[in-house]
Amino acid sequence: MLRVSVSRLSLKQQTKPLLGSVASAATAKAAAANTAVKLTSARSLATTAQSHTITLPEHSFETYKLDPPASEVQLTNEELLQMYKDMTIVRRLEMAADALYKAKKIRGFCHLSIGQEAVAVGIEHAITKLDSVITSYRCHGFVYMRGASVKSILGELMGRRIGISHGKGGSMHMFTKGFYGGNGIVGAQVPVGAGLAFAHKYRGEDAATITLYGDGASNQGQVFEAFNMAKLWNLPCIFACENNKYGMGTSAARSSALTDYYKRGQYIPGLKINGMDVVAVYQGTKFAKEWTSSGKGPIVLEFETYRYGGHSMSDPGTTYRTRAEIQHMRSDSDPISGLKNRLLSLNISTEEELKKVDKEARAYVDKEVAEAEAAPPPEAEPKILFEDVYVPGTEIPVLRGRIPQENWSFTK
Ligand SMILES: Cc1ncc(C[n+]2csc(CCOP(=O)(O)OP(=O)(O)O)c2C)c(N)n1
Ligand SMILES: [Mg+2]
Predict the structure, then answer these.
(1) Which residue puts its alpha carbon closest to atom 5 of ligand 1?
(2) C-alpha of residue 98 to centroid of ligand 2, in Å
């Protein structure tokens, strides 16, 4: 049932408004393949396509059974600026969700990714729209980067009809083209991701699947089963562990006998990447994509990252770690500040120009919040409940309810 509803929702094309993501040259070919992704023309910053060589610090990568990616990365002004805008919007989106939750306009589960923005943004800049992405419940940044609008994400969180899952999924269940959720069961997306990679291989597509999971999920049996199948069949599967140091309130060291998650594939080579540096994420993911595209089979990535907030909205996040630790990560390793410093030191933009980007991002997210809030909820009618269950045309005649009055006839 889930499979069918996913494919139905993934047919929806989302357009990206002003300041939208994926405008870089690196993703231009992807954008061409996906007309739904609009290139932004709202450039108020330096836009000449000037290329820069960024030398990543030595600690950016650690390897297991492979040679590291090049530490020299070629990126244009445009690409770097777009990464900055994307991370800023993802953070603003999450901050808006935080405020709406506290105002009781969002209910239920809600897991934010503030601090982890470089992972979703760096990955998207390194792949194409033909590739697939699947992750856990901490999914808002990924669905945005795959092409969903901020309004459709916040609308979903507030249970609106304009929500990306028509207001019926909520925080953990968002889908768009090339993005398979938003999965609430810890680790369950990992074998599904291997299956998506199998589909790419079976159809002869030049595409890979990025299957994300957490440090907490990494100890599940099904992760190792997926590793085995992916290696046996040499699937184009990029297993990507987002090691944010905690699974709920349990630190990685308390849950994992080996915290080198990039070595967990045993017979699958691995790469650990500084997940607080968007350029390192970009370079490591590009490397992984080339690895799988050249027929070498799966690879295991570990993005070392950090969430500033609690596990979910119901966790203050300060009982199992110190405030000093969080403060230290914020001030020393913040992904947005890190890229900002690079943009300033490379003379790509000035402090004022970046302030303007921040202001525009805030105004854009505020506008999307207002529109999402003003949008109506789904109609209170049974037919709404039975939408998105089957791909249109493949419905069974009658879907049984608990009592005869609840039975739903698709043939009516
Ligand atoms: C099978 C299963 N067991 C337990 C849970 C409850 N649970 C939700 S999130 C979580 C921790 C997962 O941590 P991690 O994989 O590190 O991801 P993070 O939240 O840090 O992104 C747990 C145990 C669940 N949702 N599913
Ligand atoms: Mg974790």
Answers:
(1) 186
(2) 19
Q: Which of 244, 248, 303 to mutate to test the pocket of ligand 1 (most atoms within 8 A of CB)?
A: 248
DSSP, collapsed to helix, strand or coil, labels residue 9 as: helix
This prediction has a pTM of: 0.89
Quote the ligand 2 centre to 249 CA distance (angstroms): 9
Please list all protein residues whose beta carbon sits less than 5 angstroms from ligand 2, which is an ion.
214-216, 244, 247
**Which distant-in-sequence residues (6+ apart) come within 8 Å of 32 by Cβ?**
none
> From the alpha carbon of 187, which atom of ligand 1 is closest?
1
- Regarding the domain delimited by 51-374, which CATH topology (the fold level of the hierarchy) does it fall under? Rossmann fold (3.40.50)
> What is the pLDDT at residue 48?
56
* CA atoms in the 13 A half-sphere facing the CB of 206: 6
Report strand pairing: 270-274 vs 299-304: parallel
In the block, residue with structure tokens 């777009």 = 82
Instruction: Please identify every stretch of the chain with a pLDDT value under 70, giving residue numbers as ranges.
Output: 1-48
52 Cβ contact list (under 8 Å, min separation 6): 74, 75, 76, 77, 80, 346, 348
